[in-house]
Here is the input.
Amino acid sequence: MRDRPVLVYDGDCGFCTTCVRFAERRLRPRCVSTPWQFADLEELGVSRQRAEYEALWVTPAGTVHGGSRAVAKLLLSSRGGWPVVGALLGLPVVRRAAHGVYRLVADNRHRMPGGTAACALPGRRPTGT
Here is the structure.
């Protein structure tokens, strides 16, 4: 059994990789970050399809949180004032909006700074880019 949570992200996406590197440097979360392409997804208890679709936070006990909830868990494990932001993202009234913002960003990550056509979600590859 792992002793630290695992943050699983898309290592082929420049935007995702930049965000994770920023979090590692500035937020210093208490987790192990790994691209899904190099993770043992079966051991983590997640499917490739889910790992391609959203960032995942896998607890040492095997509980999987995806999307905005994964971001909230990352913030809760960070240093400084970031756990307050993570707690706010977990509030029911904020959780729905956070999910919407996460999906908007994730669905358009190929358009975000550092993003490329390779960042587009499977089945949603941009045409003419």
Q: What stands out?
A: Residues 10 and 52 are 7 Å apart (CA to CA).
